[in-house]
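Action item from last week, closing it out:
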Amino acid sequence: MHDAGPAQKRDRVRVLRIRTDDWPERDRAERFREIHGRDGIRVEPRPNEPLQIDATLVRFPELGLLQGRRSPLRSEFADGHDRLMLNLGGPAVATQFGRELLLDRGDAIALSGLDRGTLTTLRAGRIVTIDFPQGRLLPLLKQPRHDCARRIPKHSLPLRLLRGYVRAALADDGLGAASAGLPQLAIAHIYDLAAMVVGAAREAEEIANGRGVRAGRLQAIKNDILVHLEKELSLAEVAARHGVSPRYVGMLFEGEGTSMTEFVREERLKRARAILLNPLHSARRIAEVAYEVGFNDLSYFNRTFRRRFGHSPREARELAMPNGG
């Protein structure tokens, strides 16, 4: 076996599944300390509450993304990494720099790697953590000690954009991000959005507005379109839902070399093909599938489907049958 070269080592991605249910209940806290304690992370379950963590960590050289569920517990961090934590469960309490803050569900908080910080979740729930190795977030902030260890309300627009962007990056429990390698530009977008969420310095804000914020808005718009894919979608309607102009939405898609119309058509075709290839839907009429994903003209659907995939919807269905039909 040949050792990876320097470039390959830099690009290496690690995926770690943390699942405490696989360990004996009485040994879970100690087992976690043995595995992760040397990384400067300590957890303490609440009294009479068994430790339960089911999470996926995707770690790139310059970024870590963790999502999962955890029982009520106290996490303590002293590893020198900055982190932005999205509390998606119930109430939580964070401490750092002598401050103690109560977080509601959906709120977030940034913890500096310069000082010991804690997060205590008061009930079981989901959490997403963005880890910035070796203090890489703080240089982007206007006032690091002031901006960290402050409650970031869930309704903050930059936080909503970041949450949607990270959700897309962590599709399929984070494995999608790992297998795709998460392009360097996507990592830059996450840095941009995180800086805006916490309190970006002037230069970082200017960069973020021209890069990460645009990417976050585009991802939010794409997520919105996917939710309403089967409905009539107009540029004006989508723009109004996001509080921007139709021209701005058009420019966002143009930046990717496409248009909103082309994106909608592509996603409808992919959804239709997934249904047709699923044997569980073999009894459904092709016209029904076309109308369900948002096509109102069956002839147009058949033409665009063949042009996109090189075969007709009926042929796609035959491919899904045992022995190819």
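Closing note: Residues 1-10 have pLDDT under 50 and may be disordered.
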